[in-house]
Structures are given as C-alpha cells and as structure tokens.
Amino acid sequence: MPKKTQRILVTGGAGFIGSHLCERMLRDGHDVLCVDNYFTGSRSNIAHLIGDPSFEVLRHDVTFPLYVEADRIFNLACPASPVHYQYDPVQTTKTSVHGAINMLGLAKRLRARILQASTSEVYGDPVEHPQREGYWGNVNPIGPRACYDEGKRCAETLFFDYHRQHGLEIKVARIFNTYGPRMRPDDGRVVSNFVVQALAGQPITVYGDGQQTRSFCYVDDLVDGLARFMATPAAEPGPLNLGNPSEFTMLELAETVLRLTGSRSRLSFAPLPADDPRQRRPEIGKARELLDGWAPVTPLEDGLERTIAYFRLTLGHGPARSIIAMPAASAPPEIAAALRRVGGGPAPAATGTTDPAEPIQRTSA
C-alpha cells in the first residue's frame, strides 16, 4: 500500500538543516510548507524547490502565532551557531521559547504530531562522556551561550508539559554537531571556519589547545534520523540523541581539512570562548534501537569533501549574495578576513529592533 501523503510544516525550512529536510519530505511524497524569516536561512537554499507543486514557502517569524494546516510539524526555527544566536540573545531566547509555545499551540489545535529540533547544547560542558539522554547537563544559565542553551532547555520543558497535560504527540531530538552543503560560510562553526580559512589561504584559527573534541554528523545522515524519529510510535517522545559517535579533536579536524583542500595555511591558536564545551559525543544506543538500526553512514572525509566542494562553488560565485544582512563585527574577524580574501564578506548592517511593538523581527532560521 502506498504511503499516505501528509502535509508537513518545516519551520526554519530555508536554513541549513531545514532545507535538506524539506527535500527529504518531498522525496518521501509529502506536501511541504517551508516557513522561515530568513534571519540565517537563505532563499538560495530552497530556490531549486520553487516550482514543485508540492512545495510552498511562507515568510514568517515563529515568535508570532501561525495559522496554517498541517499533519506533522518539524520545529527547526532558531539560529544555531554562536555568532548568530549571540548577535541578538534576547531574540534568540524568544525564538526558542515563544516559538515553541506558538508551534505547540498550533499542533494542539490541529492534533498534529510535532518534532522539536533540540540540541546537544542542553548538556552544556558535560561531565558525563559520552552523553546519554538521561544526563541532565552542566549548563551556565547566565553565560553568553545561555540564550541558546537555556532557550532550548525551556523548549524541551514546554514540549513535555504539552505532552503530559494535553496528550500532544511530541518528538524531541537532541541534534549534535552537523555539517554539510548549505552551511553558511560566516556562521562561526568549526567546520565552516576551517574550510573557509583553508580555501582562502588564511591561518586556521584553533581555539584553546585544539584538544577539545566534537563529533561530526553529515547532514544527510541527520535528516534520515529526523525522518525516522517522526515516524516512530506516539509512545516514544524522546528525548533522542542524533549525531555521530565518532569523536575528533579540533587539531585532527584542522589537519584533515588542510589535507583535503591542499591548503598551505598554518594553524593559529586563540583563547577558548567562554563556556565552550571541552568534549562532545553522543551515546546513540537508544536511536539505534528505536530507529531500526539507524546510525550515521557517511565517513568524515567523504562528508568534508562534499562540503569543501560546496564552499569552493559558493565562494567562487561571491558569498556576499547569500550572507544575511548583519554588522561586519558580528562575524569573527578571522572569518571576515578569509571571506574578503576569496571574494565576499558580511553584508552591510541590518536595520531593525527587538521591540515587540515592531512588526518585523529578526529571528529564526
């Protein structure tokens, strides 16, 4: 029997992960409504989908209520890199909390199942390694990363309270470091930083001593996990870790990027940012069991080669066209310099306000 076509709402659908998820839902035969306000998302990420009769786009900020029809909701709306979520921390918290309230209210009205794209940042700088879903985390609630970390933790609380109080079908996925094509060259994440700097021939900025670790999941593997999780029985709300259990130091990643790009860039060490986690690796045994053996299948080098090829193409055609309007000071100086070296850079400063009386806000992606 063929699968029933569902109406899928993806908030943050023009973002890095969201655009890949929209593609996956279309391939699976569903109708997709992509909602984004383009703070960190980009029209170029979904331009190839325009014209598909099963795909619609709506510019909207999730901190305001949304009235549409859907059978399933993926809530991905929120800036996810430190450069972007620290640019307007108050609005970041609003996006996580008000956005969750609005999307949960919509799901309650529609009796729709809803998935929250949570984050490994709920674990903070973990003292448990690897991190399992039962670990409560080690988060600084008043630090510069708290707008994102605590916003996502509060969103999880709201999801489980709606589940308990209203019987809402929820899924909470904790996403670990993800990389791949359509990452923004100016987002300040380690993979995009290293690749952009290597392609520009600029020094590779390594924070701290480079021994801190991360686990990198290729975007196709992550999206497959999200799709499978959404399809699991209602009795499995999560939270569920989705990420790659293979762990690398920052020095190992830098050396791999240098080798794959053929760059002669040298390493440049800088102080570790405040509250930056020392180690991060998911325990994915629960995902393997629940999602019919799901596990990332893309080796790091294969994924990096595809990502490097994407950045070569993007930067070669002028990245300024796909970079959001944001003061140049918001991008790390070393990344801004690398972007200028390869032909692009941060756009002029945006105008706007976080005053709730203002009708247009800068939020999700």
If you had to describe this structure to a student in words, what would you say it looks like?
The chain is an alpha/beta fold. The protein has one domain: NAD(P)-binding Rossmann-like Domain (Rossmann fold), CATH 3.40.50. 36% of the residues lie in helices and 14% in strands. The protein contains 11 helices and 13 strands. The strands form 4 sheets. A 7-stranded parallel sheet has the order 3-2-1-4-5-6-11, with helices on both faces. A two-stranded parallel sheet has the order 7-10. Strand 5, helix 5 and strand 6 form a beta-alpha-beta unit.
CATH-level-2 architecture: 3-Layer(aba) Sandwich
Q: CATH superfamily membership, which one?
A: NAD(P)-binding Rossmann-like Domain
Under CATH, the topology is which?
Rossmann fold
Helical residue percent band: 25-40%
CATH class category name: Alpha Beta
Low-confidence stretches: 317-330, 342-365
Biggest sheet layout: 7 strands, parallel
Please tally the β strands and state the result: 13
Beta percentage is: 5-15%
Backbone CA Rg: 19 Å
Structural class: alpha/beta
Structurally, the number of domains stands at 1
Question: What is the end-to-end distance?
Answer: 36 Å
